[in-house]
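Tokens as discussed.
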């Protein structure tokens, strides 16, 4: 599993170990993705059956500004993983994103032709192509708005809300971005279940609620019992972000639901899990 210091990587590793799998985390120290030789060496030492590739440069505005680095890490890095896995006979599970879509007509099913709005989205799409063209057995799991908590993890949308609202600070939150907030723990379980079910191709897995970021923020404020007036509604074009964001995004998860026999976790339950892990509730 790559990206062992990231949010999803930690959750996948913990979940796999909890299931008794012989799982090992690969961090940037073990293998810098843009270095094909380092990737090959790290994987040849482990000779894995499966590599869950969660590592990526996930800074959307950073990718827009430094396109060369974004391409080297997210596309070439993924190609290095896919090529080494083909050589060693391992399956790749690649974590991709709703940002491969432009957000005009979401929520999106797996069959919709991608059309990214920003460079991060293009690089994640390039990673999909590298993985799917490398072996028919490989799997791409598309997800979105990941949140969750783990010791020392870098911030995400929900943690950012919690940190600011707790301190009584006002936050600007967009009212025009729709999507499915996804608890990383729930996604980690789903990724391993999809693997056990022998899936290949593209499968969407994202949270069970289709909300705006503003609605998510109101829910978080309500749960903390803080003044909802701290949340200042804004439009995306008022934020002046470097990279464009898909607005009406979202992922349809029917394929995953049919395979797994369950609905993805909704936001309220996911928030409860997060607060419990942080020692705030429960
Ligand atoms: N976050 C979201 O909302 C979201 C939504 C949809 C899809 N995804 C996808 O889901 C996956 C996991 O996301 P996440 O939120 O868990 O990401 P994250 O917390 O940002 O973690 C990214 C991981 O990738 C590693 N990494 C970055 N650049 C690297 C490089 N050049 N060489 C080796 N490792 C490198 C990081 O290592 P360091 O700690 O050393 O930097 C970290 O372990 C990503 O593929 C992302 O594209 C995320």
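Sequence:
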């Amino acid at each position: 599993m790559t990206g062992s210091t990231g949010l999803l990587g930690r959750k996948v590793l913990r979940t796999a170990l909890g299931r008794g799998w012989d799982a090992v985390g690969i961090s940037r120290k073990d293998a810098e993705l843009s270095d094909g030789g380092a990737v090959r060496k790290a994987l040849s030492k482990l000779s894995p059956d499966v590599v869950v590739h969660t590592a990526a440069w996930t800074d959307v505005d950073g990718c827009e500004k430094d396109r060369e680095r974004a391409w080297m890490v997210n596309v070439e890095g993924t190609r290095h993983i896919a090529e080494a896995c083909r050589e060693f006979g391992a399956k790749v599970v690649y974590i991709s994103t709703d940002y491969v879509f432009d957000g005009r007509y979401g929520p999106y099913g797996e069959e919709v032709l991608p059309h990214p709005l920003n460079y991060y989205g293009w690089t994640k799409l390039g990673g999909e192509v590298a993985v799917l063209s490398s072996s028919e057995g490989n799997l791409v799991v598309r997800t979105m708005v990941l949140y969750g908590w783990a010791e020392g993890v870098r911030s995400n949308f929900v943690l950012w809300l919690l940190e600011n609202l707790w301190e009584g600070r006002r936050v600007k939150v967009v009212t025009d971005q729709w999507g499915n907030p996804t608890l990383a723990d729930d996604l980690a379980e789903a990724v391993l279940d999809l693997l056990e079910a022998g899936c290949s191709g593209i499968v969407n897995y994202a949270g069970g609620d289709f909300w705006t970021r503003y609605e998510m923020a109101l829910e978080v404020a309500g749960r903390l019992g803080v003044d909802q007036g701290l949340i200042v509604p804004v439009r995306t074009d008022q934020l002046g972000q470097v990279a464009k964001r898909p607005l009406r995004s979202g992922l349809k998860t029917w394929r995953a639901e049919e395979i797994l026999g369950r609905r993805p976790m909704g936001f309220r339950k996911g928030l409860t899990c997060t607060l419990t892990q942080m020692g705030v509730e429960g």
